[in-house]
Amino acid sequence: MADYDVIVIGAGPGGYVCAIRCAQLGLKTACVEGRETLGGTCLNIGCIPSKALLHASHEVHEMHENFAKMGIMAGTPDIDWAQMKSYKDDVIKSNTTGIEFLFKKNKIDWLKGWGSIPKAGEVKVGDKTYTAKNIIVASGSVPASLPGVEVDEKTVVTSTGALELAEIPKKMVVIGAGVIGLEMGSVYARLGAEVTVVEYLDGITPGADAEVARQFQKMLSKQGFDFVLGAAVQSATPKEGGASVTYKLKKDDSEHTVEADVVLVATGRTPFTDGLGLADLGVEMTKRGQIATDAHWKTSVDGIYAIGDAIKGPMLAHKAEDEGMAVAEVVAGKHGHVNYDVIPGVIYTWPEVASVGKTEEALKAEGRAYKVGKFSFMGNGRAKAVFASDGFVKMLVDKETDRILGCHIIGPSAGDLIHEICVGMEFGAAAQDIALTCHAHPTFSEAVREAALACGDGPIHS
Ligand code: FAD
C-alpha cells in the first residue's frame, strides 16, 4: 500500500490549494516544500508582499495628493522604510502561518525539503523515499534572465530583491513594462523615486486591450513615470553605488546608457523544474520549458500531473489555484474543470487595471462582429468623491446576441469590479443582463452597469 494517495510537490497557491482540496476529498495527502515557509512565490515573494508595499505607498500618495484637498493637514509624510518592510514581513508571516494552520486542520503532512521523483509513484525528500498513487508537480517559476544583465539582487534586482531594497532609490530603471515592473515601479515612484521604464515593445502591458494600455501609460506618465519604448536592453551592470543600463533604440539603432541607484529586471518568469528528475523519467516538456500536460493536467507519464506556473497558460496565482482544485477532483475520480476563457488579469497600480476575455484587437483579428460599450468614471459620483474619475469601463459584446465577450477596466477597484463580468461570462450573460441588474448607489460598480447600458440604448450619466 502506498504511503499517500497524493503527494504534491510545491506549496505555492497551486500546490497548497491542491493539497487542501485532495484532503477535503478524503485522499491521504502530503505536500513537499523546500522553502522555510508555505505559500510559494505568491505569499513569500510575489502577490502578497508586493500588495502590502503597494498599499503602504498608495497611502503616501494619498497624503501628498489628496489629504489637503479634504482638509486633512498632515504635512509631508516621514517614511520609515525599515518599518514599511517590517509591516510587509508581518503580512507575509500571517499569511504563510495561516497555510500551516490549514495543513494541520486538513491533516496534510508537510514533507520539508526539496523533492525529486526517482520513478513514477515515488517521491524522494532528503534521504527518505515516500510512495504515492498520484504525484502532482506544482513547482512554480523563477524570474527569467536576460542576456547581458548581471543580477546581484542589490543594485540590479529581480522582483525578489525589489521587495527588500536596503534604501528607497532616488532613481530606478525598470526593464520591462509588464505587470510586475509597473507594480514595483509604482511602489518606488510613490515613495519618491524617479522611475524610467525601458521596454522592448512599442507599448506597455503586452497583450492588454490597446486603448486601455494607452490610457494607462498616460496616467502613469502623469504620476512621473518616464517610458523608453522600442528599446532593446544590451546590458545592465552593477557598479559602485548603483548600476547602469545600456539599450539600443529599435527605430535608429542608436545606443544609450542610463545610470540608476537600482535596476529592476522584470522581463517575465520561467517555469522552475530543476532537480525534480523529470528528464530521466521521460516527462515531455514544451519548447518553452513548461511541463506538457493534457486537458486533465496529466503529464506524459502515468500517475504524474502538473499545474500552475510550471505548465502553460497565464502565470497567475488564481489560475494555479483553480488548476489545483480541478486536478484534485480528477485524481479523486471526479470531473475537475478550468474555464481558461474566463481568467481575470489585474494590475494593482493606482488606478487598477483589470481585464477578462477578449481584447478589441483579438476580436478584430478573429473577424468577429462586436459592439463596444464604454463608460468613463467621470460620470460616476463615487469615483469623483475619491479623486478617481480618470479611467473607464469598456465592455465588448457580440453584435447579434449581445453576449459579453470581454471587459477591460481602468479605474478604482477595477480588480474587484471585473468579477461581476467573470460571473456573467460563466453564465453566458448578455450586456443587457448586467444593464437590467440593480446596482447599489453610489458604488464604482455603477460604471460597469453604465458600460453595459452603453451596449444598448445608451448610458444615463454621459
Ligand atoms: P509558486 O508560487 O512559484 O510555488 C512553487 C513552490 O514550489 C515554491 O515555494 C518552491 O519553493 C516549491 N518547489 C519547487 N520545486 C520544489 C521541489 N523540487 N521540492 C520542494 N519544493 C519545491 N499573481 C497573481 O495572480 N496576482 C498577483 O498580484 C501577482 N503578483 C505577483 C508579484 C510578484 C512580484 C511576482 C514575482 C509574482 C506575482 N504573481 C501574481 C504570480 C504568482 O506569484 C504566481 O503565478 C503563483 O505563485 C504561481 O503559483 P504556483 O503554485 O504555480 O508556484
Q: Could you please describe the fold and organization of this structure?
A:
- With 462 residues, the protein is of the alpha/beta class.
- Strands 1, 2, 3, 4, 5, 6 and 17 form a 7-stranded mixed β-sheet that branches. A 5-stranded parallel β-sheet has the order 8-15-9-10-11. A 5-stranded antiparallel β-sheet has the order 18-19-22-21-20, with helices on both faces.
- α3 crosses α6.
- The model has no long low-confidence stretch (mean pLDDT 97).
- The structure holds flavin-adenine dinucleotide (FAD).
In short:
The protein contains 14 helices and 22 strands. It has helices spanning 13-24, 40-45, 47-67, 81-105, 159-162, 179-190, 210-222, 278-281, 317-331, 360-366, 381-385, 414-426, 431-435, 446-454; strands at residues 4-9, 29-33, 109-112, 115-116, 122-125, 128-137, 141-143, 156-157, 171-175, 194-198, 226-228, 231-239, 242-249, 255-260, 262-265, 269-271, 304-306, 345-347, 352-357, 370-376, 392-398, 404-411.
Structural class, from secondary structure content? alpha/beta
Q: Helical segment tally?
A: 14
| Shape call | globular
Unreliable spans are none
Fraction of residues in β-strands? 15-25%
Q: Mind summarizing the main beta sheet?
A: 7 strands, mixed
- The residue fraction in helices comes out at 25-40%
Spell out which ligands are present.
Answer: flavin-adenine dinucleotide
N- to C-terminal distance:
68 Å
Radius of gyration: 23 Å
Average pLDDT reading: 97
What is the β-strand count? 22
Keywords: Disulfide bond, FAD, Flavoprotein, NAD, Nucleotide-binding, Oxidoreductase, Redox-active center
Family: Belongs to the class-I pyridine nucleotide-disulfide oxidoreductase family.
Binding site for NAD(+): 176-183, 199, 268
EC number: 1.8.1.4
